[in-house]
């Protein structure tokens, strides 16, 4: 029994964007399925011919790719399309699969990016979180390919999902579909958005010919038409597969397929192991030798963030373990909400994704700042893994409050003094009556409320407190604050506040 995955893309004649998008997906698939034969196919005849002429690359069609896999002895094949919608190209690929179905013991096809209702929500979140900083307050226009196929309606559904998630003016216009850039311009004017900067980006796998010419070209393009109507377009020439969070949505479709197709052959000689790895508060020199050793032994690194660029823990590790940049990464953002039902659903979805890798016998490490045992999202995964019989271990890191106390040169507790560790995201008024030292973790978003409450308590009781704070401890942007007045200037989610009643 021999497993294989055939990755099918429309293709592109632009080598650079091919490497950043299609090759990035292929590398990740190969890393996640080290025992599986992974092949590629290009569905566009024109693209294959250009690749052969310009680059002397003999790209295979989906049919040729399946024939080659048969020759190599593949028996169980997962066909993995990178198409955005289930349109003409995806249906042609499915027809090719049907023609060769009897050539294999089993062959299945993963879904296109936008297939099920939840795909729209997942893609909206992944795309907006990847683009929101560059977009800022400007309207965002995405360029989709479009099609005469009924699946063209997917773009309208996607636009609504993006608007609902982002709470921001987001539009999707297509090159060859029903909704054009002229339609989007008319809608923006109707909504009162005129004579302003707009961000324009591809909603396509790659930033190839359409992105460079139809979107960003000097003439007869999205950009030129926007300029003619008084807008100031700024184009982002980046395919959506450059965003790790989008790649994870694609890969989740592949995992659903292989989870069934390879079900009887996924067991490895070694059992899967899950590690929660604490990387300390920010100074990479504080990472333990054990943490570095475990990271290097992992088959997959899980980042609790939308992308590696937004992950504090990844940036810390990268300074002392540069090889992490070449390791397979799984970006799984944890929602910061208090709705228990929504949290449970989100945690279950994330855990099920991680467990899929454990079933394949992979060593999975989830990075977390500070220590995994202290208000860490890792513990949600740890408990589930333990309950399901997996080996799960915690690798300690230096807690932020210990690093902060060291930076301040103060003691957290002496003799009989109590130490209270408090999550500042919740109500804190009742904590001021505690004796000893109060440490308020991740105070940034509610810092003003905490400081006002402390002042009110001092005025009400006459008790005086020594108060310190450190933002981004151990990082390049570290800031130290002494007293309530200085703390008013503090910024950043990673702000730790320490309060001690004066004796």
TrEMBL record:
Its EC number is 2.1.1.130. Pathway: Cofactor biosynthesis; adenosylcobalamin biosynthesis. Residues 274-482 form the Tetrapyrrole methylase domain. GO terms for molecular function: precorrin-2 C20-methyltransferase activity. InterPro entries: 4pyrrol_Mease (IPR000878), 4pyrrol_Methylase_sf (IPR035996), 4pyrrole_Mease_sub1 (IPR014777), 4pyrrole_Mease_sub2 (IPR014776), Anaerobic_Co-chelatase (IPR010388), CobI/CbiL (IPR012382), CobI/CbiL/CobIJ_dom (IPR006364), Uropor_MeTrfase_CS (IPR003043). The keyword Transmembrane helix does not apply. Keywords: Cobalamin biosynthesis, Methyltransferase, S-adenosyl-L-methionine, Transferase. It is an enzyme of class 2 (transferase). NCBIfam families: cobI_cbiL (TIGR01467). Belongs to the precorrin methyltransferase family. This is Precorrin-2 C(20)-methyltransferase. The lineage of its organism: Bacteria, Bacillati, Bacillota, Clostridia, Lachnospirales.
């Amino acid at each position: 029994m021999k497993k294989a995955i055939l990755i099918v893309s429309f293709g592109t004649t632009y080598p650079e964007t091919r490497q950043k998008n299609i090759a990035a997906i292929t590398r990740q698939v190969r890393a996640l399925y080290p025992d599986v034969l992974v092949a590629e196919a290009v569905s566009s005849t024109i693209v294959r011919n250009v690749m052969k002429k310009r680059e002397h690359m003999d790209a295979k069609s989906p049919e040729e790719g399946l024939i080659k896999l048969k020759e190599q002895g593949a028996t169980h094949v997962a066909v993995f399309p990178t198409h955005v919608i289930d349109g003409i190209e995806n249906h042609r690929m499915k027809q090719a699969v049907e023609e060769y179905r009897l050539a294999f013991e089993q062959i299945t096809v993963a879904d296109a990016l936008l297939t099920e209702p939840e795909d729209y929500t997942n893609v909206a979140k992944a795309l907006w979180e990847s683009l929101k900083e560059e977009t800022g307050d400007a309207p965002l226009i995405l360029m989709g390919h479009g099609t005469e196929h009924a699946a063209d309606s997917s773009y309208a559904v996607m636009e609504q999902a993006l608007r609902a998630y982002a709470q921001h003016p987001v539009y999707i216009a297509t090159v060859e579909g029903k909704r054009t850039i002229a339609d989007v311009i008319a809608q923006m004017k109707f909504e009162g958005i005129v004579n302003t900067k707009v961000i324009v980006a591809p909603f396509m796998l790659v930033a190839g010919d359409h992105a460079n010419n139809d979107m960003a070209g000097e003439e007869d393009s999205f950009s030129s038409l926007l300029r003619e109507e008084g807008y100031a377009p700024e184009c982002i020439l980046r395919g959506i597969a450059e965003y790790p969070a989008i790649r994870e949505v694609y890969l989740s479709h592949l995992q659903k397929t292989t989870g069934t197709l390879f079900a009887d052959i996924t067991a490895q000689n070694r059992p899967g192991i899950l590690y929660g790895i604490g990387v300390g508060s920010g100074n990479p020199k504080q990472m333990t030798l054990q943490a570095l050793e475990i990271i290097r032994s992992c088959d997959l690194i899980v980042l609790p963030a939308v992308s590696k660029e937004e992950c504090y823990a990844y940036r810390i590790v990268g300074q002392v373990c540069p090889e992490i940049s070449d390791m397979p990464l799984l970006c799984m953002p944890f929602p910061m909400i208090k709705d228990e039902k929504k949290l449970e659903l989100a945690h279950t979805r994330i855990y099920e994704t991680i467990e899929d890798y454990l079933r394949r016998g992979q060593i999975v490490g989830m990075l977390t700042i500070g220590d995994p045992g202290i208000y860490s999202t890792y513990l949600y995964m740890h408990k589930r893994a333990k309950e399901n019989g997996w080996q799960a271990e915690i690798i300690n890191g230096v807690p932020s409050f210990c690093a902060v106390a060291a930076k301040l040169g103060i003691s957290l507790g002496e003799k009989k003094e109590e130490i209270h560790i408090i999550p500042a995201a919740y109500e804190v008024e009742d904590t001021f009556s505690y004796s000893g030292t109060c440490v308020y973790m991740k105070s940034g978003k509610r810092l003003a409320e905490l400081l006002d409450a402390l002042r009110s308590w001092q005025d009400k009781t006459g008790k005086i407190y020594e108060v310190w704070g450190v933002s981004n401890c151990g990082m390049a942007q570290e800031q130290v604050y002494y007293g309530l007045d200085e703390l008013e200037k503090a910024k950043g989610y990673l702000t730790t506040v320490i309060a001690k009643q004066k004796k």
